[in-house]
Amino acid sequence: MKSILTGLIGCCVLFLCQVSYGQSTACRARIIDAVTKEAVISATILIKQSQQTLTASHTGECDIPLNGQAQSLLITCIGYQPLQVVVNPDQATLLIQLQSGNNTMPEVVISANRDVARRSQAPVAINTLTAKTIQDTKPITVDQVLNKVSGVYMVNLGNEQHSMSIRQPMTTKSLFLYLEDGMPIRTTGLFNHNALLEMNMAAVRNIEVIKGPSSSLYGSEAIGGVVNFITLAPTALPSLKLSVQGNDIGYKRADLQTGFTSGKWGVSINGYYADKRNSYIEYSDFHKGIVTARVDYRFSDKTLLTNSITWLDYYSDMPGGIDSAKFASKSFKNPQTFTYRKVSGLRYRTSLQHTWNNQSKSSINLMYRDNSIGQNPAYSVKDDYRRQGAGWIGKKDLAHGEINDASFNSYVFIAQHKQQFDWKDAAVIGGVSADISPSTYRADYIRIKKDTLTGKYDSYQQKDSVLTNYFSNLNNYAAFLNLELSPIPALRIVGSLRYDVFRYQFNNYLTPSAYSGSPDTVNLFSAVSPKIGFTYNFSPRAGIYANYSQGFVPPQVTEMYRGVKVPNLDPSVFYNYEAGGWFSLLKGKLSGDVSVYFLDGTNEVVSVRLDDGSTENRNAGKTVHMGIEMGVNANPIPELSLRFSGAFSRHEFDEFNEKGVQYNGKEMNGAPNWIYNAEAWYRPAYAKGLRVGLEWQHLGSYWLDPLNTVKYNGFDVVQLRAGYQWKAFEVWVNTVNLGNSYYAYTASKSSFGYSYNPAEPRNVTVGFSCDLGQFPKK
Prior knowledge:
With 778 residues, the chain is mainly β. 6% of the residues lie in helices and 58% in strands.
């Protein structure tokens, strides 16, 4: 009997052990971004029952102890909305998707000091366009999201071509720096205002915009602002998203986004092909194919190697602007029938990042660029028939133009190290960089036939006449240092300094002349760029900042070597004084930021008319720029989000005498005083996955010419967007220019007359996407 009882007890113990073994003792949770599907690193998981706090790993994973009972979790991470979930005692895995905030005022930024930093400790005006904002907007062109940022107006010149206005007038000058993951898209001295057409928006995670000079960290051309496109990392889970869209003015596009992580490897491939035919303006077709492939290899928790390559093939007709008569009659007839721009590009980047310990990390970055821009440019077409004195000379059916090609290769090296200290929470970021960019430029003359009845340029003949043919080698070497410390907890002092050296080597393959360019020469430049600022946080919900900074722009190759004589030019220098603040009230339901700036431009390059009638470039220009920028976000109820971004600015010529004409005291042309953008999004609780957004863009009046003789009245335009997401499928309908307003993206007046770039009439884009990675696994 005793042995039987002992056996029964033993069986019961074994059974209980088996039951206990069958229950999960821990749940493997994986935390990802709900939009990008990337791992959310360093998210905090609070287990409410035990008040135990856990931290997600670099893969976004964490083991949740269950102890045989359900656990309530609170997941938080800076930049994301808090989320509460419950995990059951028999649950082995848990996928947690965090939503980012839908505003342009971030908690964490990358671009402010070349590393991840809290926004509350960055003494700069910086805004972020989140992955959610980009996902909801579904932009066809970058301006459709960038113009949501206060004080930013990216001018749409058609087919992803553009100019820019950030604390500067609308301009094509080299006053803005465009980055991809912190590295310049193009090289110094060869600025192209259309640089953002080389971006792959299908591979962009979010966009950061720094307003004001940032040369102390990023170098030349970082004057009006820096736009940093941060690209997608490989997704934590396998993903394959296919999208198609098109509108009723000839635009069509297909996107591919895919990625996965397996063990130490991560892979992503993102790209799109866009095509436009028979649009609202004659001869304005285009196509663009671009793809980015990225491969990550994680040697360990502390070491990551990233490799990415982007290939671009772009072609666009170049219609140019229309004159005042055509604009007034609402005519979209284009006088250009054969002008074009084509771009081919290849960018390869490799980055090795190593974390030595909790207070020390380093990175080495290498980049190779291979870029070519071929053009038959509309802006080079000049009529032979022209006014001379009191009369006219030349042939009415003859015009002159050119076909040109500008190509360059770049070899870029950037290394930096960050060291943190316990004393006063101090941190130091230092580094060096080198950019070696050999380039070529060639322009050939073409003879153009013009139809005197229609005014169209019908055809051209390429003559055996080379206008320009040269080689240049642009070398830029730099060292930078960023220091931060907190004398008291609420105060953060930040200072940075950069020293740049430039070497321009110019070789002219033609005999020097006013057309072919200057003799062979070598020029050296250098620049020191300081910045000092502070932030003071009254509480976690409110703070102020102020900074003083300098920015610089070295002479461009076209400014240096297009004349017979090489001018003695120095870099243009800009001095910036800025203050601002931010707040968050009503438990995050109301937030905002404001900034005030004064920017003084000196040594700007102007073309001066000499006594013999010729012209020469000199550092003789001074300009003044001042303004106030404000952004406000409100979420009065969970279903409704409101945003307002506005700026008032004034841009003036201080001392500016160009080709014998004096502009002192005049407002700069293309400089509206008012720019603002307002938006409302409604996401009804009764229809999960549905969103409806209404956006209003206002651009105030501005002078068309530097003598301030004629103004353009500006415009107001409204966009309506709607989308619905159900499981793996999404459909959206975007209506651009809802009221069918007739206006120009930009307008100008010169000695050749008026020029207007007419905006798109009302058009409707319909899109559909399917994420095959979200289908249930069998």
